[in-house]
């Protein structure tokens, strides 16, 4: 793991897997748009396309650090590992494939500065857009959103409860065990923390132009997602009883 020691106000956590076609543009746009001190944390799950070489070189010259895993464990655990080694007051999670515009990071940071605990970038609130996505991806997204609203009370607080473009305060409770697999760390955070101040900002989702989507379209994806919902519902029930 490589790191620098410069002070950061926000940690930007990027889970990566074979993203060499997208990372150079992404970090360049972060540099050009984020005007507050930040660190980037890369968590890579076994990339073989040059992603790791790019990350090592970038971290040697910037306020950034990395964790390399030898096998693919999934984005849930990867993002959690990034949270554990972060040093800043605020944390931000976004995708590494340019589907989330880094130009929105400062807007999300400002909401945290205003006193909100959790900020989500939404495709479905006024001013947002799901973009020109493929029909199957849209069906999966809408179906998963419907299931989240059915299972979780906390999911009804957001117009886009499955957004993985989020920022939050370090004080929020986040605990993931090493044997957990999955995708939805935002739902886990929402389910684990009661009575938090939540804000949304709109963003326009952009379908990836380079590289392959990591979204699974097989029945295994839906089974894993259902297991995540059940896990989050149990956590939510415990928190609300307390």
Descriptive report:
Helix 6 runs parallel beside helix 7. The protein has a single domain (10-241), classed as Spore Coat Polysaccharide Biosynthesis Protein SpsA, Chain A. A seven-stranded mixed β-sheet has the order 3-2-1-4-6-5-7, sandwiched between helices. Helix content is 36%, strand content 17%. The chain contains seven helices and seven strands. It has 242 residues and is α/β, with parallel strands linked by helices.
CATH top level?
Alpha Beta
Strand content: 15-25%
> What's the CATH architecture?
Alpha-Beta Complex
Mean pLDDT: 87
Strand order of the largest sheet: 3-2-1-4-6-5-7
**Shape summary:** globular
- What distance separates the N and C termini? 38 Å
Helix content bin: 25-40%
Low-confidence runs of at least 5 consecutive residues? none
Number of structural units classed as domains: 1
Number of helices, counting only DSSP H or I runs of 4 residues or more = 7
The CATH fourth-level homologous superfamily:
Spore Coat Polysaccharide Biosynthesis Protein SpsA, Chain A
Q: Can you count the beta strands?
A: 7
Q: Structural class, judged by helices and strands?
A: alpha/beta
CATH fold label: Spore Coat Polysaccharide Biosynthesis Protein SpsA, Chain A
Radius of gyration: 17 Å
Order of helices and strands: EHEHEHEHEHEHEH
Main pleated-sheet profile:
7 strands, mixed
């Amino acid at each position: 793991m490589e790191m620098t020691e410069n002070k950061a106000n926000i940690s930007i956590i990027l889970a990566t897997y074979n993203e060499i076609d997208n990372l150079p543009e992404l970090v360049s746009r972060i540099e050009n748009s984020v005007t507050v001190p930040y660190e980037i944390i890369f968590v890579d799950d076994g990339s073989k396309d040059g992603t790791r070489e790019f990350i090592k070189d970038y971290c040697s010259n910037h306020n950034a650090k990395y964790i390399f895993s030898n096998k693919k464990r999934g984005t849930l655990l990867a993002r959690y590992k990034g949270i554990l080694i972060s040093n800043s007051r605020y944390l931000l999670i976004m995708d590494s494939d340019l589907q989330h515009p880094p130009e929105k990071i400062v807007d999300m940071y400002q909401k945290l500065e205003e006193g909100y605990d959790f900020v989500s970038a939404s495709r479905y609130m006024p001013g947002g857009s799901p973009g020109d996505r493929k029909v199957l991806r849209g069906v999966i997204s809408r179906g998963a959103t419907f299931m989240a609203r059915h299972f979780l009370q906390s999911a009804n607080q957001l117009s886009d409860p499955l957004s993985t473009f989020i920022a939050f305060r370090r004080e929020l409770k986040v605990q993931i065990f090493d044997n957990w697999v999955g995708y939805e760390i935002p739902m886990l955070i929402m389910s684990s923390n009661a009575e938090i101040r939540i804000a949304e900002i709109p963003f326009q989702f952009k379908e990836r132009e380079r590289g392959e989507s990591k979204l699974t379209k097989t029945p295994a994806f839906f089974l894993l997602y259902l297991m995540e919902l059940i896990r989050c519902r149990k956590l939510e029930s415990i928190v609300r009883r307390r």
